[in-house]
Amino acid sequence: MADPAPKSVFDLEEDTALEARLDAEAEAEIAAGNTVPHHKVRVWLKDLAEGRKSSPPKR
What's the 3-state SS for the chain? Predict the structure, then answer.
């Protein structure tokens, strides 16, 4: 039977091994230059906030 009360994300058990692996993957992506510059994200978010839909920015 399913758990009657859904759990909050704050009630989840911490998985330090998973967190460490995901952090390492993120750091590798950053080191490889696979990021979107802040100024491009900022312009995109401003457009969305003003009702202009556009595709997410690319590197």
Answer: CCCCCCCCHHHCCCCHHHHHHHHHHHHHHHHCCCCCCHHHHHHHHHHHHCCCCCCCCCC
